[in-house]
Amino acid sequence: MAAVAQGAGPAITRDLGQADADLREYGACIVADALAPELLAELRTELYRAAESDLQRGWRQDYGYGKDDHVNQRIWNLPSRDPLFCDLAEHPLAMHFVKDLLGWPALLSSMSANITGPGGDSMMLHCDQGYMPTPWDRPHGVNVAWCIDDFTASNGATAYVPGSHLWNVPAAGEEVADKLVPIEAPAGSLIAMEGRLLHTNGPNTDGKRRAGIFSWYTLPIYLPQENWYLSLNPAIRQFGSETLQTLLGFRPQVLGRINGMDRL
């Protein structure tokens, strides 16, 4: 991948109004201090515990999205790993961007973590809603990323092409790689990216692991990437809030009803 550009794109902010404006202008925004320090520490502990457990049990999944990469570790189905991740799925800041961009109801299509290890490569350039039918005239999804570790240009931070969400095309190819800008943000930050944005992650060259949690929310007309009906911990189905049940597809308000009703 070509070297990423510097100095373009939105600044880190605590002002949601500014974040909303950045998201519309650039296709991404960065909200500082989105996670309280205690919650961030708990999430980091549980995430790295899950990563180590997968490694020990032979369950580890490497994920390069279009590239043969055996350094980036992906942990899928986070809501089933610990209730902390369920809380994160319906975090008020996440719901702000979901409802603002998509409306309500919406679905949590997937919730996974990407842990980029030393030497990890970049994924292919892509738009998260690239599998959705065109023409596009609006975002059909929003990716809410949580920085569990610092995101830096040297440790593989997400990199994107500012304004590419307005191109309304599934992908633009490697010819725009020189326009990529890294999203650098401290641990505890939230990064929201709308579904049409062209992005990838950078290579990890600083010798340390970097973890981020990515929650992909979509309009309720799309089949989720994660098959929650098969993979979800049954306790979540039993005890989850109404908001969480809606996000996971167990409170269908348009499609997917049961004998015409929105619940069993």
Name the features.
globular, seven-stranded antiparallel β-sheet, alpha+beta, four-stranded antiparallel β-sheet, Jelly Rolls, 264 residues, single chain
- Strands of the widest sheet, in order across it, are 1-9-6-11-4-3-2
Q: Rough shape?
A: globular
- The count of DSSP E runs of length 2 or more, i.e. the number of strands, is 11
Average pLDDT metric: 90
Please give the CATH class: Mainly Beta
Give the CATH topology.
Jelly Rolls
Number of helices: 7
Low-confidence stretches: 1-6
| Element string (H = helix, E = strand) | HEHEEHHEEEEEEEEHHH
Helix content: 10-25%
Q: What Rg, in angstroms, do the CA atoms define?
A: 18 Å
CATH fourth-tier homologous superfamily: q2cbj1_9rhob like domain
Quaternary form: single chain
| Structural class computed from helices and strand pairing | alpha+beta
Strand content: 15-25%
SSE inventory with pairings:
Layout: H1 16-26, E1 28-31, H2 37-57, E2 61-62, E3 72-75, H3 83-89, H4 92-101, E4 107-116, E5 126-127, E6 141-147, E7 158-160, E8 181-182, E9 190-194, E10 198-201, E11 210-218, H5 228-231, H6 234-239, H7 242-247
Antiparallel strand pairs: 1-9, 2-3, 3-4, 4-11, 5-10, 6-9, 6-11, 7-8, 7-10
Question: What features would you describe in this structure?
Answer:
- 25% of the residues lie in helices and 20% in strands.
- The N terminus is likely disordered.
- The protein has 7 helices and 11 strands.
- The protein has 264 residues and is of the alpha+beta class.
- The longest helix has 21 residues.
Brief digest:
With 264 residues, the chain is α+β, with helices and mostly antiparallel strands.
